[in-house]
Amino acid sequence: MQRLSKLLLRGSLPTELRDELARLKGGSGKADLKPSVKPAPHGHSSEAERRTRTPRGKPKKNEPLSVTHEERCVVDPATLPSDAVRHGTTDSIIQRLRINVEVVRFVRELWYVPSTNTTLTAPLPPGYRGGFCPTSQNIIPALGHGANVSQPALLRFLRDIGLTIGTGTVARMLLDPEGSWVHEAADVHRTGLTTRSWVATDQTSTRVDGQNEVCHVVGNGWFTSYHTVPAAHARMSWQCCGSRSSVIA
Fold first, then answer.
1. What's the confidence (pLDDT) of residue 102?
2. Whole domain around residue 244: which residue ranges?
3. What is the reported pTM?
4. Residue 202 C-alpha from the chain's centroid
5. Are residues 189 and 228 in the same domain?
6. pLDDT (mean) for 26-36
């Protein structure tokens, strides 16, 4: 009893005894709280997955390439030692970039119509105009606008690869002479206005051919369109925004 009294005074009774004394007094013992279980890591692999070997090393860089041309490389017999023996072949995959100019003559049929005194000429293949093929007319805007190549550098590159072209021709190709970009920009602007509930507009001063003009910027989080006019008109911003009631100016 003396030992029990000392333990009671020091408050160092075992947990089981303290719980039993608490229940005898009409209370409840200490709750049996189990420690938290560490959650399993997300995507934990199974035993079978752990036994599966993971491929190591880099994938073959030439695996997705399909060979379009094959050439044989031989050794000059005069350079071989006297005891050299042929030991098969080995492959080397090379990507060859070809940039060359072909001058093509299209022989176009002519048909004369006496009743109307007119001549019909067979059309050129699609995309051929102005003395240049579709590749030339596509690569010039791609380098000029997509890669930000200046016109002098672009002209020098085209002439270095053998293309006979003038400064004015390069400038015209960069300025969309056919007007296809204008129609595309109008479609983007129209679609952006009709598919979203709000648009924002802003005006900024700009110079065109030495004249002061105003560029109206219209857009939101999904599109942006630019409209340059000779002078600033308040009505221009509303015209650019169509009939939208929610406009942030």
1. 93
2. 180-248
3. 0.50
4. 28
5. yes
6. 66
Instruction: Give me the helix-helix angle, 167-174 and 151-160, nearest 10°.
Output: 120
> Which of 167, 170, 100 has its CA nearest to residue 137?
170
Number of domains composing the chain: 2
Please, are residues 233 and 226 in contact by the beta-carbon 8 Å criterion? no
CATH number of the CATH domain containing 230: 3.30.720
Asked if 145 and 129 sit in the same domain, the reply is yes
Among the listed residues 15, 40, 42, 43, the one whose alpha carbon sits nearest the alpha carbon of residue 29: 15
Structural domain contains residue 18: no
Residue 143, both tokens: 């380098």
Backbone phi, then psi, for 201, in 5-degree steps?
-135, 150
Contact between 195 and 219 (Cβ < 8 Å) = no
Same domain, 167 and 204: no
Residue with tokens 């579709």: 134
Q: For residue 121, give the nearest of 130, 131, 129, 112 by alpha carbon.
A: 112
Length of the chain: 249
Q: Is 233 left (phi over 0), alpha (psi -120 to 50) or beta?
A: beta
Examine the domain organization and report whether 191 and 156 are in the same domain.
no
Please tell me whether residues 184 and 161 are part of one structural domain: no
Give pLDDT tens digits for 163-218.
999 999 999 889 876 777 788 888 888 888 888 788 888 888 888 888 888 888 88
HEC profile of 173-242: HHCCCCCHHHHHHHHHHHHHHHHCCCEEEEEEEEEECCEEEEEEEEECCCCEEEEEECCCCHHHHHHHCC
